[in-house]
């Protein structure tokens, strides 16, 4: 007697090929890695390798503390007449004008007449908020921005978001480390650039979300903090 297939017998369902999940994860990570690498190269392309004087004057000058020679370079621009007043943003709460004047002995008169200190900002986002308040109080519509070259992209991003109606003119300060050796030969400089790139991407995402109406909660470092007992020259950005 011929045996017939029993249609009631359940058939084994075809299983997806083994390793598909692993391949998907690896592929996704590869895409993220390539995207991050391309983004890092684009970030590096924004960094100037030499200091270039501003092409025009502005109403005011703002310098963000946290890097070598930033304040002295900003004072030179003020002395040369590139702006009417200078805001030094991110000064440590315990520091006064006299503390700064000791490191800038040739600029006492300018410090007394034409320099304002911001002691509230604890990071770049805070710098932008305090700069906006300062510029609005004085009716300034154009600013020269002084900060380190690696920090400039994030500084301009935060300032542009905080005050889109103000013209920003960057003046990138080139540190000694950057002048002495190529960044790719120094592990410390590479780590600094990677860290700054990560902060820049985070700021970019937050700003883009804010543009579409999604406000991200402020970080703890954006909140007012009490001044520590020990003195320091300035807060880092």
Q: Can you give keywords for this protein?
A:
five-stranded parallel beta sheet, alpha/beta, globular, 237 residues
Structure description:
The protein is of the alpha/beta class and 237 residues long. It is built from eight helices and five strands, in the order H-E-H-E-H-H-E-H-E-H-E-H-H. Strands 3-2-1-4-5 form a five-stranded parallel β-sheet, sandwiched between helices. Helix 5 crosses helix 6 and helix 6 (152-162) runs parallel beside helix 8 (187-211). The longest helix has 26 residues, at 20-45. The protein is globular, with a radius of gyration of 26 Å. The chain starts with 19 loop residues before the first helix and ends in a 26-residue tail after the last helix. Mean pLDDT is 82; it is low at 219-237.
Low-confidence stretches: 219-237
- Estimated helix fraction: 40-55%
**Could you tell me how far the N terminus lies from the C terminus, measured between alpha carbons in angstroms?**
88 Å
Strands ordered across the widest β-sheet: 3-2-1-4-5
Characterize the overall form: globular
What is the count of β-strands? 5
Q: Rg, please?
A: 26 Å
Largest sheet, in brief, is: 5 strands, parallel
What do the pLDDT scores average to?
Answer: 82
Structure classification? alpha/beta
SS element count, helices: 8
Strand content: 5-15%
- In N-to-C order, the SSE pattern is HEHEHHEHEHEHH
